[in-house]
């Protein structure tokens, strides 16, 4: 019986992990693909920044509504729509012919597709995964970013070099849609966690923003996101333009850092959950400070090898800090609150991206 529950939990996490990987692949490879897109359509760095910023504008403003929608309709429905939506918008992006078109498409991608996946995953974990495994499960989901950084550039960079950016997006979108269909195999809400009428009442937004814990988490997520995704979004352009690496080698560097993020996320989540439970604050503070120092080294060292080493170490420390932070809602809030409050923290943490510029 216990083995059956373990197998079921593994199956659920595997499907969610694959879906999260697709979401992160889109986020991380846009920096690589924009190198080819800008060369084809003649975009300057500021115009590339508009495309990146449009995505995060939509992503940020729809996080909280998607959290409420997940509570209202159920996590499974929003999960399915979100991932299939990512695939559809990837295909549409491939038809891009102007800056305005691509800005609008990326805005809709963030608002109608990406925004629904994180809070729905958190809500699904809150109601389908045992309490003692929820933090580790959330960490596993975030560590999918490392797998995406590994597999994404290895797939996308060669495609960009051989078939061009348009066919690359058609292929990526089709694959994501097929993977999105896997989410239909997710179970419905477990009978033992179906909420009572009183529990089903949604939290008001005023109740959420009055919670001081929410603001602490938002500020921490804001600062971490600014450093992590700021580095990630412009790494490809930096390595290609400032360091002179061809796009294929840029992909290899991104994949290398992805391996370390994946290992750090899984191993860190296990170690913290097993041996450092209750000491998450210290883990976050120490990892963040050390990661910031290493991140500074990426741009300070003249040696490319030294810079790449610093890049890998900074990503390891960053993912440990960030995944630990984003697992806290499962420990701090009740299952019925997780999706909405996680979405609020995630939205606040993403606000800086509205101003993403070179």
Automatic annotation (TrEMBL):
Family matches, as Pfam families: MFS_1
Listed name of the protein: Major facilitator superfamily (MFS) profile domain-containing protein
UniProt-listed InterPro entries: MFS, MFS_dom, MFS_Na/Anion_cotransporter, MFS_trans_sf
Domain of life: Bacteria
Domain Major facilitator superfamily (MFS) profile as annotated: residue spans: 12-358
Keyword set includes Lipid metabolism: no
Signal peptide coordinates: none
Transmembrane annotation, as ranges: 49-70, 77-105, 111-129, 141-163, 169-187, 208-230, 250-271, 283-301, 307-328
Classification via PANTHER family: FI19708P1-RELATED, SOLUTE CARRIER FAMILY 17
Protein localization: Cell membrane
Main subcellular location: membrane
A molecular function GO annotation: transmembrane transporter activity
PROSITE patterns for this protein: MFS (PS50850)
The species this protein was found in: Listeria fleischmannii FSL S10-1203
């Amino acid at each position: 019986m216990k083995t059956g529950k373990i197998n079921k939990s593994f199956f659920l996490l595997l499907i969610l992990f694959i879906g999260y990987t697709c979401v992160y692949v889109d986020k991380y490879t846009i920096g690589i693909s924009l190198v080819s897109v800008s060369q084809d359509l003649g975009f300057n760095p500021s115009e590339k920044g508009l495309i990146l910023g449009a995505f995060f504008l939509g992503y940020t403003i729809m996080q909280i509504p998607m959290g409420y929608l997940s509570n209202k309709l159920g996590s499974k429905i929003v999960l399915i729509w979100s991932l299939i939506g990512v695939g559809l918008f990837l295909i549409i992006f491939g038809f891009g012919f102007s800056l305005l078109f691509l800005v609008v498409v990326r805005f809709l991608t963030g608002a109608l597709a990406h925004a629904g996946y994180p809070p729905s995953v958190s809500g699904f974990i809150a109601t389908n995964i045992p309490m003692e495994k929820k933090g580790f499960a959330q960490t596993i989901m975030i560590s999918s970013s490392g797998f995406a950084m590994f597999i994404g550039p290895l797939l996308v960079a060669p495609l960009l070099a051989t078939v061009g950016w348009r066919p690359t997006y058609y292929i990526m979108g089709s694959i994501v849609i097929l993977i999105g269909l896997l989410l239909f195999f997710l179970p419905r809400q477990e009978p033992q966690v179906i909420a009572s009428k009183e529990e089903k009442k949604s939290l008001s937004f005023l109740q959420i923003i009055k919670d001081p814990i929410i603001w602490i988490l938002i500020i921490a997520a804001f600062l971490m996101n600014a450093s992590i995704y700021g580095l990630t979004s412009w790494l490809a352009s930096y390595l290609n333009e400032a360091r002179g690496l061809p796009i294929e080698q840029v992909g290899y560097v991104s994949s290398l850092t992805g391996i370390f993020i994946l290992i750090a996320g899984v191993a860190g989540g296990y170690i913290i959950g097993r041996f450092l439970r209750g000491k998450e604050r210290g883990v976050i503070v120490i990892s963040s400070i050390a990661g910031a120092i290493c991140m500074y080294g990426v741009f300070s060292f003249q040696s490319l090898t030294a810079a790449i080493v610093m890049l890998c170490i900074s990503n390891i420390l960053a993912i440990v800090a960030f995944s630990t932070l984003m697992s806290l809602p499962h420990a701090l809030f009740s299952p019925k609150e997780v999706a909405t409050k996680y979405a609020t923290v995630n939205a606040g943490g993403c606000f800086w991206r509205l101003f993403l510029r070179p």
